[in-house]
Amino acid sequence: MIKVVWEKHDDGLVSFEVVRESIERSRDRLRVLANMVLTTSGLLLSACFAFLVLLLDKFASSGVGTVLRITFVLSALCFLLAAVFSIVSSLLHARFTILTELKFIDDLLKLIQREVRLFTVAFFFMLVGLVGVFFSIVCAALAL
Fold first, then answer.
1. What is the model's pLDDT at position 1?
2. Where are the domains of the chain?
3. What is the pLDDT of residue 123?
4. Which of 10, 11, 17, 112 is buried deepest, with most CB atoms within 10 A?
5. Could you tell me the pTM of the whole model?
């Protein structure tokens, strides 16, 4: 059940402290997501090499073995790039001096925008690697 309550508030400007806290919480959430991508990419990187070793025994000399080698190696490379970009997105690169509150908020916003871009690239590489692994598994299953 949804209840609508009409309240009257004295609207005022949002304080810089509230804006700064909001940005910092968003950066914390982004760092948590980047750590998840890092962990997942590391696990999938290990899984790629395990699949590569196990499946190449069965398809050592066939054309399917060559396709599997290429796709698993490319997927492993994508997972490695995803891990690198997720680490880079969590690092604090910019050093800035705090002159005014407005400049500080502006610097924080630029920093989080950069972190979001790097995280998006990391997530993209992880998804491309996953597609490569699933493609390889489907090819191996069809070749059996």
1. 53
2. 20-143
3. 96
4. 112
5. 0.81
